[in-house]
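Hi P.,

Sorry for the delay on this. The queue was packed all week, but I finally got your sequence through. Input first:
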Amino acid sequence: MDAPSGHRGECGRIRPGELAPIRGRLEAFADDLFESLPRKDQRARGACYLRGLMLEGRRKSIEPMAARLGDVHYQALHHFVAVSPWDWRPVRRRLAEVMVTALGPTAWAVDDTGFPKDGEHSVGVQRQYSGTLGKTANCQLGVSVNAVTEQASCPLDWRLFLPESWDADVERRVACRLPERVRHRPKWQLVLDMLDELERWDLRPPVLVADAGYGEVGEFRVGLDDRQIPHVVQVKADTSAYPEQVRPTVVPTPGGVAVPDRATATSRPRSSSSPWPQASPPAWT
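Then the structure:
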């Protein structure tokens, strides 16, 4: 739902006066996206929230968004986003279906996105490395699976990464109303969870691509193999891979200490980082 070329506002957002030419398309998109919501007022608030996200302005919290929209009260929009009991899963599924159809992606890409934060009480916030920010900072991390082409990309599914430190931090969990069932999961596992969910929505990647942050994890590669998902993942230059038939051997040393032999050692007979079947590289590589 981009504005015409040359009609972009701050941060790539649309200025209020530029919304009119695409208002009809946007309303039709919102009607389709929020069709699963049971009440008319909920569907109307969903359309308003969508417009608020698209309009220019760096602050995307409810109050400034409501002020920019002008035709919706802050309390009504806040109730829709934070309180109103509607099921977000059919909405997310419909968005994924629409975007896969619209883009015709050549691949799906795994990505991390950092959201800088000043305080300590946003869910999942801590000092951690963010590729988006290019440094370690106080931030939240979102993990997403994205449909990509040479011209465009769009997230199909996403998860907020919860650092392990949050599992035992009762005070912050209570303050954020974080459900007890929500616990730390490694980012690579979040991606497999999303791929399983997308599969339940009858969506499968033509090919999945990921950087070394995921490609170096043997369990992740094995998970893709188990799901029969074609993939191209980055690994480090010194990652070892061996033919399936190779088995570890012990090489004696002059001091009588046995050490694994790099030339013949291997791990489980599976691989997706090379043509040879193997999973995680052995601990001694």
